[in-house]
Each structure stands twice: as structure tokens, then as C-alpha cells.
Amino acid sequence: MRKNWVLGRKSRKWCNIVRHTRKNIYYHELIGLETEIIEYPDRKLVGLKGRVLDETLKTLLIETLDRRIIRVFKEHGVFRFITPHKVRVVVKGVKIIGRPEDRLKKISR
Model-level pTM? Predict the structure, then answer.
């Protein structure tokens, strides 16, 4: 984990910059991550690659490589996310249902 300076109002302090990893992907927002649909009931969407534009409680909005915008349900799919540090993480959609702050509460129980 890398440390960076964070400028506060009155002082400087060290802060850990948390990277997306296989273990903590559930705690982060998925917006901006590259993704691929590995399994989905609609076979036309399997293999679809793109970038996550928006994340709601139950869906992901994905912009594909050919600029189409697709909304998919999280609970029906298995997704591969590529983090900014090029780590590939396969996630079952059932585990990412909910907003990021709600997922944190659910997993920490």
C-alpha cells in the first residue's frame, strides 16, 4: 500500500491510498472500471466488454467498446473487472448487489 500526503485544514498527515484488490473489490465503487460479462442468462451479452458508467442498487450501466450503452442486472451475471492497477477480479453479481456503502455494511457482519 502506498502512502500519500493529504493536506488538511491545519496540518499535513499521511494517508493510505487503498487499491482495488481481489479481497476489497466489494467495498469500492465500480464506476470507471473496465468490465467483461462472463456469464449471463441472455447469451448475446456474454463476452461483452466495456466500462462501468453508473451503478445503481441492482444494475450496472456499461458503455461497450462500440459506444453502445447497456444496462444489466447484477444478480443475474458473473463479471470480470479490471482494476486501475490491471488486477483482474471475477465477481458473482449477487455479491455486488447494493450501493457500495451498503455492501460494506453487509460484508462486515
Answer: 0.75
